[in-house]
């Protein structure tokens, strides 16, 4: 990636400004999507077939969330006894407009979708109805990562069926594979003439052994392999590399030294954005500038943990997550790619009762007073708690060095992050 623009220079060093704003800032424009799959040649054609002026700029936005879990009470909340069917759409109704502002929208699916015949269960061995994939697609997701410690909760067949359930809804998946050939394949997707690679890895599978000779089923953390995957992705045409890494210590709000060291190593070796998961609580965002081994510097961004997006855990901070947004900007004809804007919107998982049964939903923060007054499932008392949660989360997200905490900054006026001409998704 190229250098960050000059307006990000502050106090003699380069830093990313976490732009603090109400969630409405991300809702001002909604780029269109073309979700049709493209062949490797079509990826290049998407970029080259559209006439471009001698110098132009294109943008595309990545939106990411954390752990998508399905505990027993959540599965029960989505069940309709009258129809004997499941529907989880209501979990995401409030957050969907925000997600749909992304060109790439990614989350960590931390449960198999292995089918009713293998029994739906929550912790410690998860298996959720495939209707969850349908709800996530409707909410706006385009990519689900599946490399996490619950990937093998239903064994090899669970891995295969989960991939099939995701793909049946028209979404992409990365981090698991049904065959050795799939395990070697890298996910490259293009939006508006910008091609990113999406790679995913996990620290382990909770001690569940792999079938003999089938380690390809779940992509595991191995620094040498990860560096090689980054190299191959760029060789295959990726202009930027996004890594989803399932690492860190559960319920710890700050990254440990191993996380920091790994992030630094991977950015030095070509990663541009690292999306962390596993701790089930949000950990901060950090910009890194590291030696590239060639006498220069490389820059990258890491959010060490996105926290829970949807779950039914009870521990402190496990009901708070974050919608993370990074805008990638590409300059033509030079091909320079850089992250020009990073934004965060805290979220809250509401567990409540509706229609005589348990219910769940994800709400973006802050919640307005008007919303609290109009919503029968919210109270003014809860509103005051959420206001405090919002302030605390925004401070927490920017609490690591190399970030400037600027509470007076506001989201700059947005235009649609991309041009309709030449826009589309491609897989290589």
Report on the architecture of this protein.
The protein is an alpha/beta fold and 428 residues long. It has a single domain (6-31, 56-404), classed as Purple Acid Phosphatase, chain A, domain 2, CATH 3.60.21. Helices cover 22% and strands 30% of the residues. The chain contains 10 helices and 20 strands. It has helices spanning 40-48, 72-77, 96-99, 131-139, 155-168, 180-184, 223-235, 257-268, 369-374, 380-397, and strands at 9-10, 13-14, 16-19, 56-68, 79-80, 85-86, 104-109, 143-145, 172-174, 187-191, 194-202, 240-246, 273-277, 282-291, 297-306, 308-310, 320-332, 336-354, 357-364, 403-404. Strands 3, 4, 7, 8, 9, 16, 17, 18, 19 and 20 form a 10-stranded mixed β-sheet that branches. Strands 10-11-12-13-15-14 form a 6-stranded mixed β-sheet. A hairpin with a 2-residue loop joins strand 1 and strand 2 (13-14). The radius of gyration is 21 Å and the shape is globular. 47% of the residues are buried. Residues 2-25, 27-49 and 403-425 have low confidence and may be disordered.
